[in-house]
Design a protein that fits this description.
The structure holds two protein chains of two kinds.
Chain A lengths: L29 H8 L28 H26 L3 H24 L19 H25 L3 H20 L1 H6 L4 H4 L5 H20 L6 H24 L10 H23 L4 H31 L2 H21 L1
Helix pairs in contact in A: 2-3, 2-5, 2-8, 2-11, 3-4, 3-8, 4-5, 8-9, 8-11, 9-10, 10-11
Chain B lengths: L2 H4 L7 E6 L8 H10 L25 E8 L39 E8 L7 H5 L5 E3 L5 E3 L10 H4 L6 E2 L6 E2 L5 H4 L6 H5 L5 E5 H17 L6 E3 L12 E5 L19 H21 L7
Parallel strand pairs in B: 1-10
Antiparallel strand pairs in B: 1-8, 2-3, 4-5, 6-7, 9-10
Classes of the chains: A mainly alpha, B alpha+beta.
């Protein structure tokens, strides 16, 4: 019998000592003895210990690319909220605010759709998305939302540019504004409807994070594109969206359970901290620099960048929670143990 | 709701029962699956962790034999009389190893082997989230990807709670076990079950397999192997039961299986409600920004 003892624990940094002889009390360290004596059946997830298959992930790696799908989520939000804000600006007679937002919406939704198609394994089969309508698949629902929204955003932007068919353009802007709320929020169920712990467990908060982040970004786009005398609503949207985004995403990280901690760690942590810094700085700049076109535009750019960082942070938190089996196993083990305890108590 | 369940009167549900207590880790299932289904090479890797150099299920691995090495006695070997200080040095002899020693003197060691496969869930998250309809439930209630439809969106991959389905990089589409849809349609058993030399992999009508599994579990418990348990056979679990279920000798997570999987779409109605609420709040918030005067 071999004397080396290859167990999953040793994959976590503890090198098998050359003297780790089977069962020999004199040469086995106290720590190793304790670990060896803790039978899997006696280990509890509550103690922070859990079993895994050589530390390998339970669920498979996410094949989406961070820039493509992070960009898809961010640009969809920017487009949807820009359309909503543009519709309000149109309705209240602020063409100087509506016009740049109508352009922003078309550019962003084009980029979002392009990123989605680029990330497909078979981009030439994108139209297969429209073979069926499946409410059980947020990506199917999202594709149909894009098919409805995209042409409206297109007509809205082209009529703004050319000045042709102004009434049609206005109607398209209103339609895009109403649908924009769906465009900005459907991506939350899209990422949450997976077995990825850091996404699924946050599903009650994610739509509000995405919606508020989208509003902050659209407010930022308005501050960049609109003259200061018409940018009041964009400024209020920027500040309100920024405060809501920071509050809701902080609440999500603290309340979603074990994998919430990942939003503060590694790449995800860096993006989430950058997002909060940029968003709050942008909001402060939007208030303090309200008389300056340049300060407003810079604040707007910070808000747009902060919104992109939020999506990338969410994306990386999901990836990190997939890579470590702890985030899959421990919550499920606790749930199962609790259920079994309850069943035993009934008997 | 599966159409095939509703019309299931004449066509019983087919599946696998993988009894890991008799798996010898020969990997004949992996080889047979690759050959029959023409699955490409999945990397000539050396993991350095056990005899398992396959790693796990992926687009190019539809059967995966796990090797778990443990300092554990099998349940019926447990003596509890402080035998841990004995060491079997494994010195060469003319006898079979351990033949002259009493069971409790053989040292504590066991090797768990288990052939993993797609679970063919009753409520399959991959089928639910597939935006093209490429993934579907067959008339045998198995789950199959239609390769001429799949556009490689990759959504099914994070949706699967077991880490089964994956995207083939040079091909761009999602691939996984088909439960040999081409063979079972012709009345043949799947390649892995056909090749298994110990009948660790059993194929057949799911109802019959469940009866067989219950009997096997009873026998093992009677023989003192108290750690034996079934995994995925319960139609009331988070995925509505598996079409391919297992008899395990330790906790599922030891084999790399999730201990309490739930189909993610169970929460989808609530997700849509939250998203709808967020959309309404967003429109109200944007409208409110226009209330504050002409500035």
């Amino acid at each position: 019998m071999s004397t080396s003892d290859v167990t999953e624990e040793e994959m976590h940094g503890q090198k098998p000592g050359r003297d780790a002889v089977t069962g020999a009390a004199g040469v086995v360290g106290e720590q190793q003895r304790r670990e060896r004596d803790a039978r899997p059946s006696e280990r509890h997830a509550d103690d922070g210990e859990f079993a895994s298959y050589y530390g390998r992930p339970v669920i498979n790696a996410i094949v989406w690319e961070a820039p493509a799908i992070g960009g898809y989520l961010f640009l969809g939000g920017l487009a949807g909220a820009s359309s909503a804000l543009a519709a309000g600006a149109e309705l209240t007679g602020r063409p100087g605010l509506a016009r740049p937002l109508r352009y922003t919406a078309l550019a962003a939704i084009s980029g979002s759709t392009a990123a989605l198609i680029y990330d497909l394994g078979r981009p030439e089969r994108f139209l297969n998305m429209l073979r069926v309508f499946k409410p059980t698949s947020p990506m199917s629902v999202g594709s149909w939302i894009l098919m409805g929204y995209g042409p409206l955003a297109g007509v809205s932007a082209v009529t703004a540019l050319t000045g042709w068919f102004p009434r049609t353009g206005r109607l398209a802007t209103y339609g895009a504004g109403a649908m924009g709320a769906l465009v900005a929020t459907y991506t939350a169920p899209l990422v949450c409807d997976t077995a990825v712990p850091a996404w699924h467990e946050g599903y009650r908060y994610m739509p509000f994070v995405f919606a508020s982040s989208a509003v902050a970004a659209a407010g930022g786009a308005g501050l960049i594109g609109a003259p200061t005398e018409q940018s009041g609503p964009a400024r209020r949207a920027a500040v309100g969206g920024a405060i809501a985004e920071t509050a809701v995403s902080t609440a999500m990280e603290h309340r979603m359970g074990l994998s919430g901690e990942l939003y503060g760690r590694g790449t995800a942590g860096r993006y989430m901290r950058a997002a909060k810094t940029l968003t709050l700085a942008g909001a402060a700049g939007a208030v303090l620099g309200r008389r300056s076109r340049v300060a407003s535009a810079l604040s707007g750019a910070a808000l747009v960048a902060g919104s992109a960082c939020t999506r990338l942070g969410v994306f990386h938190a999901g990836r990190q929670s997939q890579e470590d089996p702890k985030y899959t196993v421990v919550p499920q083990r606790r749930r199962r143990d609790a259920r079994e305890r309850a069943e035993n108590a009934q008997v | 709701m599966n159409v095939s369940t509703d019309s299931g009167a004449e066509q019983p549900r087919l599946g696998f029962f993988t009894d890991t207590s008799v798996c010898i880790g020969c990997k004949a299932c992996e080889v047979a699956c690759k050959e029959w289904n023409m699955v490409p090479e999945d990397g000539l890797d050396f993991t350095g962790m056990s005899f398992d150099n396959t790693g796990g299920l992926s687009a190019d691995t539809w059967r995966h034999v796990a090797f778990v090495e443990q300092r554990e006695p099998l349940a019926h070997q447990e003596t509890g009389l402080g035998r841990r200080d004995t060491v079997d040095l494994g010195m060469p002899s003319f006898e079979l190893p351990g033949a002259s020693a009493a069971p409790e003197e053989r040292g504590e060691f066991r090797w768990l082997m288990s052939s993993d496969v797609c679970k063919h869930c009753t409520h399959a998250a991959c089928v639910d989230v597939c935006p093209t309809g490429a993934l579907f439930h067959t008339e045998f209630d198995t789950v199959v990807v239609q390769q001429d439809i799949c556009n490689g969106c990759g959504y099914c991959i994070p949706a699967c709670p077991y880490g089964v389905i994956d995207r083939r990089e040079d091909d761009g589409r999602a691939w996984k076990c088909t439960l040999c849809y081409d063979r079972v349609g012709d009345g043949l058993e799947p390649a892995c079950a056909k090749a298994c030399p110990t009948d660790s992999i059993q194929f057949g009508d799911l109802d019959e397999l469940r009866e067989r599994a219950a009997q096997r579990l009873e026998d093992l418990h009677g023989a003192g192997v108290s750690s034996a348990r079934l995994y995925g056979e319960d139609p009331d679990d988070g995925v509505g039961g598996n079409g391919a279920f297992f008899l395990l000798l330790d906790e599922p997570e030891v084999y790399g299986l999730p201990p309490d999987p739930v189909v993610t779409t169970r929460d989808l109605p609530s997700m849509w409600r939250h998203a709808g609420a967020a959309a309404v709040v967003m429109l109200a918030g944007v409208a409110a920004t226009f209330l504050g005067g002409r500035k």
